[in-house]
Amino acid sequence: MPNIVVLVKQVPDTYSERKLNESDHTLDRESADAVLDEINERAVEEALKIKEASEGEVTVLCVGPDRATDAIRKALSMGADKAIHVSDESLHGSDMVATAKVIAAAIGRVEGVDLVIAGNEASDGRGGAVPAMLAELLGMPQLTHARQVTVDGSTVQVDRETEEGLTHLEAGLPAVISVTEKINEPRYPSFKGIMAAKKKPVETLTVADLGVDAGEVGLANAWSTVLEAAPKPPRTAGQRVDDEGDGGTKIAEYLVGQKLI
Amino acid sequence: MIDFRLGDEYEALRKTVRDFAQSEVAPVIGEYYEREEFPYDLVATMGRMGLFGLPFPEEHGGMGGDYFALCLALEELARVDSSVAITLEAGVSLGAMPIHRFGSEEQKREWLPALCTGEALGAFGLTEPGGGSDAGATRTTARLDGGQWVINGSKAFITNSGTDITRLVTVTAVTGQQPDGRKEISTIIVPSGTPGFTVAPKYSKVGWNASDTHELAFDDCRVPEANLLGERGRGYAQFLSILDEGRIAIAALSVGLAQGCVDECVRYVGEREAFGQKIGTYQAIQFKIADMESRAHTARLAYYQAAAKMLRGEPFKKEAAIAKLVSSNAAMDNAREATQIFGGYGFMNEFPVGRFYRDAKILEIGEGTSEVQRMLIARELGLP
Questions:
Q1: Any idea what the CATH number is for the domain that residue B164 is in?
Q2: What ipTM was predicted for this assembly?
Q3: How far apart are CA B111 and CA A57, in angstroms?
């Protein structure tokens, strides 16, 4: 009966235009629709599958501003049992190290955690390091980039897929897992699930509640500073090649000109 | 002042169905439509999402929601495709609802759980080849013989009646004569596969081509006496109440189609160029789309309000008729304008607006024609 914590994050919808704030180069959360990150839906799905196979409890953990409750509700409506929401102005602009510390402290409040499941990287920051940092902070084995997860008694097996290839990992519980988009197809919440989610407990905590020093989090305490940011230049129109019998040559010339061949 | 905002749970449902429609229905439905094939996979997913159980209580396998939740789901589905929307509408509002509304506890336990999960579909056999709007002119008969109803007659244009997962059709039939000489009409459950009950090959239709529609024939078809749904002789009142509700559902579906036309056009006119500019910069196009949006918006308000009255338990006949009338008009008008904006591409089946154009017309016909709606509205006004 594993006790599972799933990390979820509210991110700007990848379909909308995503921007950074001009003042401090942090994410402009107001300019785009905010949604539960799709990779987190898969993490929740995996936790629910494990729970459904052997009971247990699924807690959703989210660090984010107040409006992130929408993302939490979505995870709860899929079937997670309860949630912890760490919301604190002082967290604005926190880097991955600070975020991992806060998450680790929040996980410490859940009794008897067997598994922590995260997405391999969020679609906004795309750092992809929080699960590994978290495992270090919690002193748990890390099994990242999982495309398949099997929990068997007190061990967990993972097929880890990266560009280097496929690795089969096994670790004793408790452990931290991060999943890739190949892990599963997340379910849609049912209306019953949506209604039930309204009644599920969400514990809201501040940094002080977690006993984390405010001097370790936030933009001012990040280990790196963004000096400058510029939007990607718009894609320029392609070059059209008319084939007058020499199309192949012209394409080759173009590729040579671009130093591609 | 009236608060026009949707409750959180309705908004969450709307977004969920929108997400499903965009990511799962939109990419594949064109091909189902072209092949005139019933999309079993999509229907199964809709079943797992609980859409078929939306307005039914949890004790019978439902989601514990209400009819408005169903309407929101229908609107969001129809915004992408009407075939899946009508499959849901007919499955819930016509297939399962009569059993929920008029069935005995035993009948509900027997039929509703499978209908609520979408594993099984029910159909409603009301319209006959000889009469749609004049539903009182039912010719199908059912007589009792040795503890069984013996049914004879035929039904036309029955949605969901011939799929592999169709499990029953509720049929209206003349079961005798009332003291005043009028026909006594009753509703009877006929399980699929009952001897004497034949499902004709599916129709070749102008639209709704990925939905399932058949003519049904009953030739000395025998079912147990206990398959009577509700009271004997109440059939006419039963289907009138089912149709009143159903009008709001069809209105929601029509609003979805009308809005889908706006969605498609807004996208297209920002890409398509003519005479050196995006066509969306021309006022002739902008005004068309502004009118389309206005029609979808006002029609939506009409069905929201009709649904609100219905859920409060107030009379809603006139409001439902108005919602159905204006929203089916909006759907037809928007489909015509969208096709015009798309030009030659609008006449190609591979573009959704062509599908919208073919699907819109039936909305002015099914679940009471526009003329029937006007008749109802006039009657509610007490006109002589």
A1: 2.40.110.10
A2: 0.83
A3: 33
